[in-house]
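ok trying this again, last paste got cut off
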Amino acid sequence: MGLARTVAAVFGAVYLLVGILGFVLVSGGEGDLLGLFPVNALHNIVHVLLGAILLYGSMSFAAAVQTTRGVGIVLIILGILGFIAPDGFGLVPLGGNDIWLHLATGAILLATGFMATDDAAATV
């Protein structure tokens, strides 16, 4: 299946699950998920959307490369914004543990997207 597609699928499933759990486990969709990550309804929706984008991107090599790069950049930006505006300008919580989570997952996605090679093309 290729590393880029696998990473997109795994991270997509995780972000989708985290978004859903944010609605299910956190009262009213707002509070601390697992006692570590502050979330609200908009934050949960963003996680569901990012998960869906990554899962869709895992369908082909080219899409996986684009989505891992694109979502990786978005997550790096959100991680940096967590230092500047931890309250996400009053929209979504970005500070605290979300900073390192966004930076780490963004870095993994970016590295995967930029180091990806098409295994199918390499075997021909």
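PB: full thing came through this time. The chain has a mean pLDDT of 91.
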